[in-house]
Amino acid sequence: MRGAPPTIGACVDVEDEMRDDAVMAGWGVAAWAFVSAQQHRLLGAAGERGPLPLALNSSAVQLGAATGALAGGLVVDTAGAGRLWPFAVACCGAGLAGHAILARRPGRRAEA
Fold it and tell me: What percent of the residues of the chain are helix, what percent strand, and what percent coil, each to the nearest 5?
């Protein structure tokens, strides 16, 4: 094909590729390692009603991932990739603030 872009392999340095692989592996472990522990805790708390909370939790995790991808895509489309990190930091801060508020509600058990 005339005018076709070069292949990705021709543009990638091996050291950069190894670093990127390590970053993606770290992200995968950090982002998804909590799911099985969370599901175990839900099963213990739900008793015989276990499948419903697991299904709702799985749906919420997937909805959160999709919403984050949508929001990130909108930021990149409107403001550019360079503006993605302040948005990500703001989302993390909002999540931590929400967690701090919800964790201190009166009547909440300290341990499950």
Answer: 80, 0, 20
